[in-house]
Fold:
Amino acid sequence: MKSDRRGSYLNQMLVAATDAVTYAEGLSKDDFFRDRKTQQAIILNLLVIGEVATKLIQDDKDYVTRNPSLPWQNMRGMRNRIAHGYFDINLYIVWETIQIELPKLIEALRKLD
Structure:
């Protein structure tokens, strides 16, 4: 994979993660559970992150191997769970992801080569 395409993909991932975290800013867990629009916006961004991770896993294995600080398989797994079980999405896991995992992902993405 060309590094310029990789850079574009990684930027898409960073934007999606940042957007998802931003959408949840200022919301309590209860607010999040009542706000279907915010849930859907965040879930869409989680899908984008997973799609990008899947693309890089498939097309740029060496890069993925050289950057184990990113949870490549977890991102892909979440995408698959969302895409194939949309009506069974566990909002508790989504909430934990945006509160704990996405800030770590954003930090890791900013440190990549």
Observations:
- The radius of gyration is 14 Å.
- The helical segments are 3-24, 29-34, 36-59, 61-66, 72-84, 91-111.
